[in-house]
């Protein structure tokens, strides 16, 4: 019965909201997340597991976990404020990603996957040189640490509005809870915890919208509520886009350059947290399925989830049901308490905490990955044991959380407009590295000197534009008719200024410097994709499309999974050809990978259409596990026992496979 969720109007906001049951639900949820995430620590056996989950998960698992990563606490607070002030055009930031998705699916994703880079910074060293790697690493760390601080700040604001507690107290509690399960389980814990949190926050956001529509429809149901909702929106509030160049703090052109071009491309192409998700996929095709699922289905739903509280707040104020929130960034919490019965209010606030923690865990794990792979391992402690790097990774995770605390306090001094605040730090960091990534991936002639000049010069120009906003005027006012804000600045157009400057600097310097030889950049730009697959495998890819086979592990009489038959490859058949050897001699191509060798019977290999030396994916036959118990392997010589797979005990143990459980085998290439 819908009326049990509704509060009586009129409603006046207050500090220290909610009932005891709400607080019990929030605390219980935090405890559940802590336990759920820590469970997956037992699946983390190496730094590759800690940061990339062994590159074994299915598209749907990665896709659902990305929901929680993309929808942070700042999304609920920021887009509720934007929806309250501007209406349905608050969805622009979630629906403007489609045009660059082909560049990601068929360009950037196979480049980073087949090159086996562990970060975008490492890509910069392979594609360019060490100074470029250092510059990219500094920009990425700056971006991610600021993002962590911003998310902590928005949840601190929400805790202050709801509970009346200090911002600092809320920040510390969430930081500690997140740090514990990330440190214990790494990327596997992050992915599975975010799977739960993503489903929860989508459900909570849609539940709030349904309750709100029922309320403004005067208990006439959601359909009547939609009619009332539409009637109370002005013409401009009904449009999916804001004005082309007005208002100057939320114009279409400003959002396009700041969010779609600089922000969204940075988030998808460069953000280490998102990159680690795609590197955790079992194959490039699984990553492509994931991004399609996310762009075509999840992002439009997410736009409604994060914006509807603001739309409802707008309508409720016009109907006289609530007082206008002051400041406007309290729109989400005001509407949530007004609409929801005690208990439901706690559930919605727990979803807000889930949104923060899901973004925070991704970025914290990613920042630790950058430190280990791009600072500690190459420059401070080479050739240490994997156990040593695991310990450093966990320490780096804790240090990252502490740094986020400090940045959150800094954000508290920057004002109340959360959308503008978010855009401010994005526009200062993202344009130069976005320009460098795109030119590196899609322009063969782009040089090391051009990449470094693009990043350093772009950052210099951006910081200069803060002191002298007139530098942005030609891009904002002359080209697009955007007027300056009260301070004379053009904050939403700074991203375009930065992109153009970084791009021009990179192109000019590249034309006067010498690019790397073809063999040195093999597999690192769009024109060498066919070769990148060959280098990844270490031989000619098998283009055949076979069928999945189901097998049982070969077991000895004592029940352990092993084989007394030698598991090996025919050296003569699997020696790298002359092209691969030449490229590796020139320093190009990914580092050779050591895959475990498995053996199948001839009937299974024929069904797979696989040959000796091909790469396969072996997983527990239960697909709902999403690849949790699985591994990549290389096929050895066929044996004569149909239905069995020969697999060595160490691989079986590290892959978390179970004795006596059927396994499925898929051909990769």
Describe this structure in words.
The protein is mostly helical. The protein has 2 domains: 421 residues, Sodium/glucose cotransporter, CATH 1.20.1730; 126 residues, Barwin-like endoglucanases (Beta Barrel). It contains 25 helices and 6 strands. It has a 6-stranded mixed β-barrel with strand order 1-5-2-4-3-6. Helix 8 runs parallel beside helix 19 and helix 12 crosses helix 21. The N terminus is likely disordered.
Low-pLDDT segments: 1-15, 556-566
Average pLDDT confidence is 80
Number of strands: 6
Binned strand content: under 5%
Q: Supply Rg.
A: 26 Å
Give the biggest sheet.
6 strands, mixed, barrel
> What is the helix fraction of residues, given as a range?
55-70%
| Overall 3D form | globular
Main traits of this protein?
669 residues, mainly alpha, Sodium/glucose cotransporter, Barwin-like endoglucanases, 2 domains, six-stranded mixed β-barrel, 6 strands, globular, disordered N terminus
Describe what is shown at a glance:
By secondary structure, the chain is mainly α. Helix content is 61%, strand content 4%. The longest helix has 50 residues, at 167-216.
Give the helix/strand layout.
Layout: H1 20-39, H2 47-52, H3 59-70, H4 73-86, H5 92-95, H6 101-114, H7 120-127, H8 130-163, H9 167-216, H10 222-231, H11 235-238, H12 252-270, H13 272-279, H14 284-318, H15 331-339, H16 344-380, H17 386-411, H18 418-442, H19 448-467, H20 473-480, H21 494-511, H22 529-537, E1 549-553, H23 578-585, E2 597-600, H24 602-608, E3 615-620, E4 630-635, E5 644-646, H25 649-654, E6 663-667
Parallel strand pairs: 1-5, 2-4
Antiparallel strand pairs: 1-6, 2-5, 3-4, 3-6
């Amino acid at each position: 019965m819908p009326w049990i969720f509704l509060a009586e109007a009129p409603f006046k906001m207050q500090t220290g909201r909610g009932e005891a049951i709400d607080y019990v639900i929030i605390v219980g949820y935090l405890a559940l997340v802590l336990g759920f995430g820590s469970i997956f620590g037992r699946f983390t056996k190496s730094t590759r597991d800690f940061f990339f989950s062994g590159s074994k998960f299915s598209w749907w698992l990665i896709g659902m976990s990305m929901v929680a990563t993309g929808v942070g606490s700042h999304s609920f607070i920021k887009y509720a404020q934007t929806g309250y002030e501007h209406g349905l055009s608050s969805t622009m930031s979630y629906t403007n990603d489609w045009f660059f998705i082909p560049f990601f699916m068929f360009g950037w994703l196979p480049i980073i996957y087949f090159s086996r880079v562990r970060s975008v910074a490492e890509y910069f060293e392979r594609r360019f040189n060490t100074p470029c790697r250092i510059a990219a690493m500094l920009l990425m760390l700056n971006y991610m640490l600021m993002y962590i601080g911003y998310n902590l700040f928005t949840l601190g604001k929400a805790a202050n509005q709801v509970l009346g507690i200090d911002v600092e107290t809320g920040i510390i509690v969430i930081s500690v809870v997140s740090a514990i399960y990330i440190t214990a389980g790494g990327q596997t814990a992050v992915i599975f915890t975010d799977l739960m949190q993503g489903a929860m926050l989508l459900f909570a956001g849609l539940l709030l919208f349904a309750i709100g529509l029922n309320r403004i429809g005067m208990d006439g149901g959601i359909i009547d509520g939609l009619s009332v909702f539409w009637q109370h929106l002005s013409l401009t509030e009904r449009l999916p886009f804001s004005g082309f160049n007005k208002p100057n703090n939320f114009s279409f052109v400003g959002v396009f350059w700041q969010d779609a071009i600089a922000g969204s491309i940075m988030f998808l192409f460069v953000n280490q947290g998102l990159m680690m998700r795609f590197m955790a996929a079992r194959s490039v095709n699984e990553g492509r399925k994931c991004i399609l699922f996310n762009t075509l289905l999840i992002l439009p739903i997410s736009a409604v989830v994060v914006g509807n509280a603001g739309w409802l707040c707008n309508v409720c104020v016009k109907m006289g049901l609530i007082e206008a929130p002051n400041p406007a960034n309290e729109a989400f919490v005001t509407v949530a308490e007004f609409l929801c019965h005690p208990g439901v209010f706690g559930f919605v606030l727990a979803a807000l905490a889930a949104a923060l923690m899901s973004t925070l865990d991704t970025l914290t794990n990613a920042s630790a990955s950058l430190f280990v792979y791009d600072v500690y391992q190459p420059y401070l402690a080479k050739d240490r044991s994997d156990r040593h790097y695991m310990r450093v990774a966990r320490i780096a995770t804790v240090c990252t959380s502490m740094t986020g605390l400090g940045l959150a306090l800094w954000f508290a001094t920057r004002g109340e407009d959360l959308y503008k605040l978010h855009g401010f730090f994005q526009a200062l960091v993202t344009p130069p590295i976005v320009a460098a990534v795109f030119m590196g991936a899609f322009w063969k002639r782009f040089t090391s000197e051009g990449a470094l000049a693009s990043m350093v010069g772009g950052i210099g120009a951006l910081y200069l534009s803060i002191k002298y906003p007139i530098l942005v005027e030609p891009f904002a006012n002359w080209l697009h008719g955007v007027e300056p804000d009260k301070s004379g600045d053009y904050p939403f157009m700074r991203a375009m200024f930065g992109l153009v400057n970084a791009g021009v600097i990179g192109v000019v310097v590249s034309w006067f410097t010498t690019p790397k030889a073809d063999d040195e950049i093999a597999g690192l730009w769009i024109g060498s994709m066919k070769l990148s697959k060959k280098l990844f495998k270490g031989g000619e890819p098998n283009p055949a499309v076979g069928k999945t086979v189901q097998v049982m592990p070969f077991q000895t009489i004592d029940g352990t999974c092993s084989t007394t038959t030698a598991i090996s490859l025919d050296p003569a058949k699997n020696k790298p050809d002359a092209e691969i050897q030449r490229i590796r001699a020139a320093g190009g191509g990914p580092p050779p990978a050591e895959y475990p060798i498995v053996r199948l019977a001839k009937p299974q290999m024929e069904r797979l259409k696989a040959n000796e030396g091909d790469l396969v994916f072996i997983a527990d036959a239960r697909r709902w596990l999403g690849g949790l118990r699985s591994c990549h392997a290389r096929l050895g010589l066929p044996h004569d026992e149909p239905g069995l797979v020969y697999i060595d005990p160490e691989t079986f143990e590290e892959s978390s496979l179970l004795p006596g459980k059927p396994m499925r085998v898929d051909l990769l290439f």
